[in-house]
Amino acid sequence: MTTPKTNRATDRLQHEYLLLKNGPVPYVVAEPIPGNILKWHYVFTGPENTPYARGLYHGKLVFPINYPFESPSIYMITPNGRFKTDTPLCLSDAWTPVLSVPTILTGFLSIMIERTPTLGSIESSEYEKRQLAGQSLEFNLRDNVFCDLFPDMVTSIKIELERRAEEERDARSNPQSVTSDELERQAEVERDARSNPQSVTSDELERQAEVERAAQSNPQSVTSNDIEALLRNQFGHNDQSPVYSTITKLCVVIGFAVFSFMVHYVLRVIFTE
């Protein structure tokens, strides 16, 4: 049986759903449960240049019958390293009826990518967040509600997982194909290991060993970018230091000069003999 309050909430949420469809919010999609507009599910696409960049984060919104005069509860379902999962995160302290589903989700996403402690937040390293981001696609595929409400995302996830699997197969069958991006990723793993040794998994260590073996078996495949990545790894520097970048490039130039001199000397000896 519906009540005036329920009708008010239903009308408001139907209006907000149309707003969301007509004016999509960056990194956010949301759908109500069919037959129950008081329960919505949303998905965040991890923004670029954040630890969440490779992830998809599924959650839900539960609205009270007197919405918008009372705040909804937000739940995060996908493990993310920032918020507790399956725990209601209420907005009552800062709630105002002028807020809507688009503004609620946009605000929640902005809080997610921050580091400031807040209600329901948890502590984790950036490495752990990146690991969870990579695992989020498979996690979401195991959720029936996610698959029912977001079929287009399910298709995209399957394509992405197949692409990752193909890259992994190529890397294992052809270790010489390791790129500077991969070496930089391994440098990042080692930096995380130094700051938080418990966070590095055996899979990451094994992959790191593969990269090192590839470099040893085929040193010609290592470019100047690869050398810079390895130097950043050894000395714990990042790209934000122009002085370090200059020194690194100078080392690379000197290294190639020494190598060229040695090759020239060996060839001269051979032809002399």
Q: What this model shows, in words?
A:
The chain is of the alpha+beta class and 273 residues long. It has 2 domains: 4-139, Ubiquitin Conjugating Enzyme; 174-272, no CATH class. The protein has 9 helices and 5 strands. A 5-stranded antiparallel beta sheet has the order 1-2-3-4-5. Mean pLDDT is 79; it is low at 219-241 and 263-273.
CATH superfamily of the largest domain: Ubiquitin Conjugating Enzyme
Which whole number gives the mean pLDDT? Answer: 79
Major sheet: arrangement of strands:
1-2-3-4-5
CATH topology heading of the largest domain: Ubiquitin Conjugating Enzyme
CATH class group of the largest domain: Alpha Beta
Share of residues in strands:
5-15%
Number of helices: 9
Provide the helix percentage: 55-70%
Please, how many domains?
2
Biggest pleated-sheet summary: 5 strands, antiparallel
CATH architecture of the largest domain: Roll
Low-confidence stretches: 219-241, 263-273
Net shape: elongated
The CA-CA distance between the termini, in Å, is 101 Å
- How big is the Rg? 25 Å
